[in-house]
Write the structure tokens for this entry.
Amino acid sequence: MAIYKVTVATGDMVEAGTNNSISITLVGSYGESRQTTVSFLFLPGKERTLSVHCGQDLGPIVLIRLHKWRLFLEDAWFCKDVRVTAPNGTLYRFPCYQWLEGVTTVEVREGSGKKLVDDKLQILKEHRRQELAARQEAYRWKNFAQGWPRCLSVDSIFELDSNIQFSCIRAKNFTGFLIFQGASHFLSGFLLRRTSWNSLDEMRTIFSRTQGRDIG
């Protein structure tokens, strides 16, 4: 019996957690584990740890499969990463950093940054082929007008996968930054100034105050 310790981390952004069922399959060089349920509740910024029991040593863990099942209502989940500790103490890291939506299975490779020539196992070669095909399907190009640069072949950003869209969280952060900068310039006398600047040094003083602050 080989026991693997698995830690699954959820992103810390708003609505990253889920009430849907999440399970995992470990895939090693010598075989793969049974699909094992991780949890039915994931909170933003939290981790879940479990033990995966296998009848034999799986060898080096090369990828994992994350399975998401919708219980009642659709509830997207943002997986940060997964860490797997083998019986011999070897730690394998699987950076995910993506949204899982609906009923889906996502395969994540071990994060050692290997090249194509390093893929000796057929399962890794097939994973790379499928990943390339998925990206080619997601990033199709079209001509908007004669003489214009090519653009994505979609009519709306909502046709794109949620991992490609400019997220609401980023938009809120960007808006908050603009508000902060506007308030800073206002308080510094920049926006309502009615006279000319006395010198470049005076302008540098204003901007060094606003750019040097930490907005959290």
